[in-house]
Specification:
Number of domains: 1
Number of helices: 0
Order of helices and strands: EEEEEEEE
Radius of gyration: 14 Å
Length: about 100
């Protein structure tokens, strides 16, 4: 999922809202107005390394971080729809986004 800042959420982060038909989403997206998708994603963990294969073209410039967090859905369907209410751990320690997308060779 893609997170963005939102002071209305307990931890100051939310899953980004998207506009279906406007924002480019993978075919496996769950048809919700959120940047959320994970079918078939199986992270491979080895020590302090996590490898995730993501079939997305044009993402070579993207950076990322890994976060374990609690999420809460707004039951009324109002924005923000999916808030981060608690953060347990951040891989980088500071959300510095050190992960880099590496094209498959």
């Amino acid at each position: 999922m893609v997170l963005g800042k939102d002071a209305a959420c307990g931890a100051g982060l939310k899953v980004l809202d998207v506009s279906p038909g406007v924002d480019v989403l993978p075919a496996t997206a769950p048809m919700l107005p959120l940047a959320l998708d994970s079918p078939g994603m199986s992270p491979q963990l080895s020590g302090k390394t996590a490898r995730v294969t993501v079939p997305v073209k044009g993402g070579e410039q993207a950076s990322f971080d890994a976060v374990t967090a609690e999420l809460q859905v707004n039951g009324e369907g109002k924005a923000p729809l999916l808030c981060v209410t608690g953060v347990h751990d951040i891989a980088s320690g500071d959300l510095s986004m050190p992960g880099k997308v590496v094209p498959k060779k």
